[in-house]
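Bug #77: duplicate submission created two jobs. Keeping one. Sequence:
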Amino acid sequence: MENTTNNQSEEKFTTSENTTNPDLNGYWISIKQFLIELLDIRKDTDKEATIEDIKGNISMKGHTAWVLVFSILIASIGLNVSSTAVVIGAMLISPLMGPILGVGLSIGINDIDTLKRSLINLGVMVVLSLATSFFFFLIPLFRNETPEILARTAPDVRDVFIAIAGGLALIIALSRRSKQTNTIAGVAIATALMPPLCTAGYGLATWNLSYFGGAMFLFTINTIFIALATFVIVKFLGFPMLKYINSTKRKRIARLASFVAFLVLTGSIYLFFNLFKENQFRQAAQNLIDDIKKDGISIIDEVDENIDYHNKRVKIFVYGNKLSASEIEKWNNRLPEYGLESTLLEIQQGVDDSDLRHEVKNLTDLYVQNQKIITNRDESIKEKEDKIKILEIELSKYYNAQIPFMQISKEAQINYNGLKELSYAKQIKTNFNTIDTITVFNTVWHDSVPNTNQQEILLKKWLKTRLNLDTLIVN
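Kept job's structure:
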């Protein structure tokens, strides 16, 4: 009986397993299918139109050349006034992407003629851009260094990622049947091909070869990785290879294209590796400097030049209390903790800065004292302003309580011909419980007026109405 029960239990367990596995497999297949459809870029790809579109934008002649010149001029002005909006506008209208995409496409489809044409136009593009920016920055008025120019004088490892991502996005957007113009415009802004060329022209005009070299290096990185991204997508999407009647020529061109692609790929990897190592070195050096400052050591004159990657040297300038030889040795011994094993740490400090620190303390005390004086003065001014406001309120009440006696006397003389004199006063009266202020008018009438009491009653009524008073005495 027990065996029968166990067998039934095993059968149920096996049945539940068999029913669960197909469900899990079905879910996995559905998820996999969804991801394939979500990330598939082969669908809706127009290869022939993409090739024609890229080839049509390679040329740097006529209208395209003038558009390039004017866009470079606009970008140079934007860099000179540090206007990001102007630089972005120039990048939107520039035709710089055409030859670069042509290089990547031609290598991908073994089109040696298009490769030659692309490289020639790329060279023309660079020369035109450098010449335009060079002549602009030759004008003394426009030769000042701005943050926008300094930001394009040295490449960073992040520029590589921007160029790769931008190139991939651009060729994917171009390969669709319905072109995504907003993506193309966004890539033109993000990859920033034009500002480095303008900065390189600035470096030539000011004879600053470090600016020229750094800017051209940044432009070269962007160019190589955009072309590389184009080559990768062209190969991935299976663009049709250019066929030659002569099989020997086809093989020779295929080998040449493969060799060029290998050189570009190798150079790209080399550039990326160097930039990555430099960025890693600078980050480690900055971490070292931050930890030194956290240890209570004051550092001044922190500039990028103090971190020298090529000579493996970190220079810091210390002020305040001098570091002892043991402290300097301690930080040198800690260099391996930051990955700076073969790095030279130069710590430069003054001989005796006690006078300087004393002067800084005096200036600090003087600043605190001046702040107290300013605070007290502000409080005194506020107190006086409050008193003025109170007096203004009281004065306003006083003026509101006054009667326009001159105007009233003229009107009374017109209305009452027998009125000889009219006087006015405020009478204060008390019954020792309350105090009242009563308006009193005293009158003197001509002898010819027969009934002065009646005239006074009329005058009193008129005055109460005219002055809007409840209580009034007329004598």
